[in-house]
Structure formats: C-alpha cells, structure tokens
Give the backbone structure.
Amino acid sequence: MTSPTTPTDAVPRRLADEVARRRTFAVISHPDAGKSTLTEALALHAKVISEAGAIHGKSGRKSTVSDWMEMEKARGISVSSTALQFEYGDCVINLVDTPGHSDFSEDTYRVLTAVDAAVMLIDAAKGLEPQTLKLFQVARDRGIPVVTVINKWDRPGQAPLELLDEIVDRIGLTPTPLFLPVGIAGDFRGLLRRGEEGAPVEYIHFTRTAGGATIAPEEHYTPEQALEREGDVWVTAVEESELLSAAGQDHDQELFLAGHTSPVIYASAMLNFGVRQLLETLVRLAPPPAARKDVTGTPRETTDPFSAVVFKVQAGMDTAHRDRLAFMRVVSGEFERGMVVTHAQTGRPFATKYALTVFGRERTTVDTAYPGDVVGLVNANALAPGHTLFAGKKVEFPPIPSFAPEHFATLRARSAGKYKQFRKAIDQLDSEGVVQVLRNDVRGDATPVLAAVGPMQFEVVTARMQAEFNVETQLDRLPYSLARRTDAESAPELSRQRGVEVFTRSDGVLLALFGDKWKLQYIQKELPKLTLEPLVAGAE
Ligand code: G4P
C-alpha cells in the first residue's frame, strides 16, 4: 500500500524520484578496447536485447548502421551517436554513445558535457591508449567521476596491479578496485568483491556461455569456500587486495565524486564477466543528475521547470527527409512531447512535436523525459551545440567549450561562381559546430582554414557542401598539428616566425598554429614573453 499524497506535492515528488533514479554516463575508450561489445553486454543484462550481437553486431555491423549519408554507408561506421536508455533494477540508465572509431571528432568530446559520469574502458593487454587519455582529460576538466573497467581479462596480458600503477603514473588518478580478478589474465575465473579495508566479501564465479551470447551464470561463494575451490589463485587475489588497502587504494565515495579516485572492475565484455558488477556499481555509486549553473552562475535545480542543453546536431541523417536532429540533454523539469519551449539564444518558441531517441537504426518517439535523459528533436534548424531550451523561468547555460583542434585544412569552392553559396555554407556549418572556422588577412575569405579534432569532420564538411549546398569544394590539408591560444600583443611576433600562422576563430579567439610540439617548444624557449596557452583538452 502506498500512502496517499496530496495533489500539491505529487508532481514534484515524482520528478524528484525520477531524477534520483537516473544514471547518465558515456564510455570513454580507444578504438578496439571493446566499447561496442560492452554496450551490447549492458543491453543484454538490462534485457533490452535477448542475444549479444543485436545492436552493433560486429559481423553484421555494416548492415545495421543508420543510413546517414553515403559516406557513412561506404565506410560502414555510425556517426549518429545518441543514447541507449534502459531500466536496471529501480534505475533508468542512459548510456550516451561516443563516436569512437575513425569518426573521432569534436562531437566525441561534446558528449562528455551531457553526462554525469564516465566509464573508462581499458584493454588489459594495451593499457592506457591515446584516445582514452584525451577523453579522460575532458572528463577531468569537467569534473565528472570516472569508473574504470579493465576489459579483455580473458586474454593473456599484464599483471592486475601493474595496470593500476600505470593509471596512477600517467594520469594521476587513484584506482580503487571494487572487484579484483581471480585468475591471471587469460585464465579469468571470477571476481573477488572487496569490502572494508580490502577484506574479501565474496567470490563471484562465472561460467562461460557459447560465444558470450548470453549472460554468464554467476555462483557466489564465501571467502572460505573460494579458498577451497580456487586455492592459490584465490590467495593471490586476497594478497593483492591487502596490498591495495595498505597503499590506501580503497573506495571512498567523496574522493570518487570529486574525481580523485576511480573504482575499478576487471571484466570481459565478450564473455559478459563483470558486466552486472558494472551496472551495480553505476546504480550504487554514480551520481544522479545534479543542478547546472547558468551563464550568471545561478544553479538550475533539477526540479525547476524544464530546461535542456543541446550537445550535438546531426544533419541529413535520413537522406529521404533531409532532416536535422538536435540532441538535448534534459537538465531540469519534466519534458513532454508537444510542449512549446523557448530557444534561449533567439528567444523564439520551439515546438517539440517530433521528439525521439536514436540508437543504431532504431528511432523511437519520446513522450516524456526527465533530467539526465537525451532527446532528439527533429527539424531543429536553429539549434546548435551549447544552446539552451527552456520552459517557465528563463535560463541560459554557458556555451560548450571548443576543443583543441589537431587537424587543419584550407577549403575553397572549385568554381568561383559559387562563392556566395560557399560562404553561406561555411557560416552555416560553423554555427552548427561541425568544424571550427579560422581566418586571417593573408589567406582571405575565399580560402578559410578549417580546424578539426578528428579528420572525419572535414569529410562531413565536403560531403554536406556538395549534398546540401551544391558546392563542389577543394580541401587541402595544412602541415599543422597543434594550436595555442594567443593574444593581440603576441600575434605580430608569432606571425613573423617561420612555420607559424596566426588566425582568428569565429568566436574571436586568436589561435597560433604549429607544425609539431618541437616547433612550439623552440618558440616558447626563444620568445618566452609571448602568450601561448593550451586550449581546453585534446591535443595536450
Ligand atoms: P570498440 O567498439 O571499442 O572499437 O571495440 P569492439 O567492441 O568492436 O571490440 C574490438 C575487438 O575486441 C572485437 O574483436 C571484440 O570481439 C574484441 N573484444 C571486445 N571485448 C572483448 C573481451 O572482453 N575479450 C576478448 N577476448 N575480446 C574482446 P574483433 O576481432 O575486431 O571482432 P570479432 O570478429 O571478434 O567480432
């Protein structure tokens, strides 16, 4: 029996409950660490799919991707990252997808502005890899807590504690395992659940299923039973747990939420070992959506009237309809499809009749959403990443930072007669955040310089120039790989240096471009007075 509630507190109570049960996270990893496999495994545990292979299905991947742009089809990759939502226990989990393969782009970073936690997925044999490091840096800059999953423990690899040392040494994050592997890498038998001061609480033994297609059955044993069953390998795991405790590597919720420590789970996404433990950890320890500060620094509480931030805009996902989807993360209040909200940047009303979620090729209509949820809005022509939508009391959230570009190219229209169209298209793509646009007086407006986090952003630009604006373009890569923020005083001196160019980005920031870090270091040494500041995350 539920106790009767008065109508006045019924609505806010429900909203607060919905907020409290949400967990919104993204997986950060290097290509091939197993992100797709883990996503499948999570969906399998949440009973969204009945057999692994249904969403991305490696072998069937080419046929299951969304039909976004010819380019995407040809390359067999999915640029259309969004969110997978599922219920687990009493919780609603939103797994926001990060584009992860050769399609690494600014969008990959932007996703991290829409989540409350990140799962750092590491290949046990390879350790920390470049893309993981870059994404981790963004997570750190945003102050979001990180749960670490050491994947592929079913394969031979490093010793468990060695991997943890690498995390401490290279990124200064203190790993605090919640579960340690029983059995060396390549002989993964199960997990030791660590309790207070590293004391083993239980042994979870997993049984393999054919091809890892279904959930791996678990048996739970007491430490005494584990010793009897596994002998030395259990003793090793217990000793490792004690060593970690002696080094202070036990879970501490406050330090985790502050981004200083990271709970660790050893797993095999392929065999579904440790996947349930990850879900349990997210439910138990990851933070629910919290208030977000607006441009004035005032927090918008999750129970305030509806507000959301756009973190990604996807154009032309469906060639038949030429639609433009904007993905927003709900920050506060309840979203109901059909409600008319206000676009903070223009002050104009925005109708939300077509609201949906996209995962793989599935598009599902969303009728209601709560803080932490991701909703795609159709025909969102005026919306760009960082924009705010709200109902009721006005709010505007700060813009999403631009990330450090590492790829640069000039772009020009092949036919001079198309110049006007070309400029219009450049401005449009710039405002959508597809690519960063740079200019200087030497190069002029006919050949702007495009700056990107991943080279695929260039492909998106040239493909859209052709398909949507009917402008054939010529793209030429520039030999720069590093950008630094500078100022008007330093710019003239920098421009005189060989192999350095200074540009103004469309947000007014002055950027100096360098061929490589040695060139940058040389100039910093020779001309120490010049302003050369790192940009937000990425190339550092
Ligand atoms: P990604 O999305 O991060 O790029 O990685 P993905 O899941 O596609 O996995 C990359 C490869 O690693 C795949 O092998 C996948 O099967 C394998 N893999 C993922 N998790 C595990 C794991 O826990 N253990 C082991 N042993 N392998 C794992 P592939 O050869 O590229 O594809 P497939 O032919 O195996 O499907």
About this structure: The chain has three domains: 19-54+78-285, 302-390, 407-534.
